[in-house]
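In the laboratory, one determines a bound structure by crystallizing the protein with its ligand and collecting diffraction data. In a computational setting the workflow is compressed into a single prediction: the sequence and the ligand go in, and a structural description comes out. We illustrate the idea with glutamine.
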Amino acid sequence: MKSRRIGILLALLAGVSQLVFLTPAGAQAQPAPAAGAATAKVSPVAPRKEQVQAIVDEAYAKFKGDTRGKNADCIPVLAKVNPNLFGIAVVSTDNQVVTAGDVKTAFSIQSIAKVFSLALAMEELGANKVFEKIGSEPTGRAFNSPVAVVDMPTHTANPLVNAGAIATVSVISGKTPEEKWAKILGFYGRAAGEKLALIDEVYKSEAATNTGNKALSYLLAKYDRIYSDPFQSVDVYTKSCSVGVNALQLAKMGATLANNGRNPATGEQVIKAVNVPEVLSSMMMAGLYDGSGGWAWRVGVPAKSGVGGGLVAVMPGKGAIAVFAPPLDEAGNSVKGQEVIQYVANKLDLNLFSPASVGLK
Ligand code: GLN
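The predicted complex, in structure-token form:
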């Protein structure tokens, strides 16, 4: 244990810029190199890849039969998605991949899109301006609550509830809504490392029923907290929620955040590194809506859910884990998704608030 601590210290002294999260198959976790050494970047707390695969397989088997929760019905087509679909994907910052189950099935990204719209708004405006225009306070209320808009001093509350997310989309530049939408979709794709597309059926279903979001946008206008046309902003926001991803793509998007904004597969710096901590802190505060406090208490990693059944958690410097399982709890978070990530985070000591996450036990 002592040598592990020394390893960490030496890694810090050596200014190692990237530590390998998963020890490649067959190899043993090595202490970090001595100061000045040029290579060997395996983190002293990196689990072996086969160990991660075994834990993911265990979690998959343990929760596969869990039938708690219910598909979202706030968007009619989501109620029709097969509730038994279940996939888990882990992608490390050095682009190693571990999967189980339905990781190639596309589903709508829904609210997880909010994270990447926030990142894009920050690319354009910087953290301070976005904080000023949107804020980052948890609401303690449902994600689509108009009461929160009235009650919260900033009205927008944070970028991860519907009102704040619609306002976030409204600050992204674009001469026309089409131009703005193309920019957003392109940005999400760069975070995933491959082109993504709208699921038209989901978009149509949500666009036909999103009166609540339209109401939120006009409520924001009343308080001067929306920054372009309210209904156009809702429409672009609705498209952003209707983007199709699979669990593997979602894990890659998370891994881009974990890797300081650089996509581990393509090597592209998609998100400015300087903006990553604020994006992750808003996920910690509000990523699971009014379930965020309980999540932070139990799991301790920033994460974001979507009513399509996706959930992605980001372990800074290490990697990301994404789960797709449609049945949701009362707050709108995937039941199996939360169970799986809690299980894996616990087995691998990922809780950011625990010194065990950097090897101190
Ligand atoms: N598109 C959904 C909405 O605006 C997203 C909600 C969610 O995933 N929590 O209500």
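Confidence is low (pLDDT under 50) at residues 1-18, 30-38. Keep in mind that any predicted model is a hypothesis to be tested, not a measurement.
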